[in-house]
Amino acid sequence: MNIAENMEDVIELQIGEPSAHTPMYIREAAVKAMDEGFTHYTSNAGLVSVREAISRKMKREFDVNVPINRIIVTAGAVSALNISLLSLVESGEEVLIPDPGYPNYESLIRIQGSVPVFYPTKQENDFLPTVSDIESVITPATKAIIVNSPSNPTGAVFSEKKWKDILDLAKKHELYIISDEIYDGIIYEGSHISPLAVNPAMEDQIISIFGFSKVYAMTGWRLAYAIVPEKLFSLMGKLQEPITTCASSISQKAGEAALNGPQKFVDEMREVYRQSRDVACELLALYNFNYVKPKGAFYIPIDISTTKLNAKEFTLQLLHSEKVMVGSCDTFGPSGSNIIRICFAGDVEELKEGIKRMGQFYQKLINKHD
Fold first, then answer.
1. H helix intervals, 63-100
2. Selection from 308, 329, 352, 367 nearest residue 151 by Cα
């Protein structure tokens, strides 16, 4: 991105952000909140009315009963992950994270002196982990497993059966599950499965994290929430105090409007993303890219190992040669060294042109090595 700042007419396929603007009714709710004086601190856990709206959502969408004393509103999902890890894991203890997976998992764990341990999610399994692969890296120092469904960067989506297997494993080894569900509204086949719905009896071992950024195009509002075990609620609220104190009161009122208002925007954007996904996959297939069609989120992982370049080399050469930016997945874990990621949440015409340029670049590299 720093290199591209000095270049013109660059097509950006690397940023994991919707191109749509936040719906008007949500923005209007924020203006109304300011006019009505919602410009002060809230409690660490967030406004009661917002947590009540979240509780209704959990019942409406997942048939899960969650009282407000298990809901903490945070300044983005990263903050929710941060206080979750701080509440559970001591220095030196291990947290299992997916490979490839969201880079901030590793960063957050390392920052607090704990140890990230990768578990594989392989392309031949549609980037879904197996229980045996996860169990093989569990040690006496393991405290928690982070799971991300739908996944960034792979678009993998957990089935109910997969969740049952993972939860049984967590129960067997007495581990916590931190479930990152930030893309819960962006699934193209079936619907989102939350672990809290799969086994409510394990609510004391599960932290589920949701947000507004991706589903409601609210990335800049910095708003998310965690559904936490009741025994951790007080501690996590106290941990939020020295980190962010509370989420923005104005953003909270906007989020309340998002949850209570019409969900037409979510449905429409899901269909837009689905169409963009299909267009992107059709073009990738045309250029013989090795990829996995995502079932959720808005990313496509692409294996570029046949070019004889690693991910970073490929992305830099593509940028200089074709003025197309894609994500290098070497930052997403050890297995990402030969994987790039494109995001299809932006303008579809730019997406087409970007893949066309990337495809021509890819074919030149392939022909060079034939």
1. 77-88
2. 329
Q: Give Cβ neighbours of residue 262 (< 8 Å, ≥ 6 apart).
A: 25
Homologous superfamily (CATH) for 4-16+264-369? Aspartate Aminotransferase, domain 1 (3.90.1150.10)
Q: Does the predicted model carry a pTM greater than 0.85? A: yes
Burial class (CB in 10 A: 0-12, 13-18, 19+), 286: exposed
Topology alike, domains 4-16+264-369 and 24-260: no
Written as tens digits, the pLDDT of the chain (370 aa) is 667 677 778 899 988 788 899 999 999 999 999 999 999 999 999 999 999 999 999 999 999 999 999 999 999 999 999 999 999 999 999 999 999 999 999 999 999 999 999 999 999 999 999 999 999 999 999 999 999 999 999 999 999 999 999 999 999 999 999 999 999 999 998 899 999 999 999 999 999 999 999 999 999 999 999 999 999 999 999 999 999 999 999 999 999 999 999 999 999 999 999 999 999 999 999 999 999 999 999 999 999 999 999 999 999 999 999 999 999 999 999 999 999 999 999 999 999 999 999 999 999 998 876 6
Every domain of the chain and the residues it spans: 4-16+264-369, 24-260
User: What is the distance between the terminal CA atoms of the chain, rounded to a whole angstrom?
Assistant: 32
For domain 24-260, give its CATH number from 3.40.50.2000, 3.40.640.10, 3.30.930.10, 3.40.1790.10.
3.40.640.10
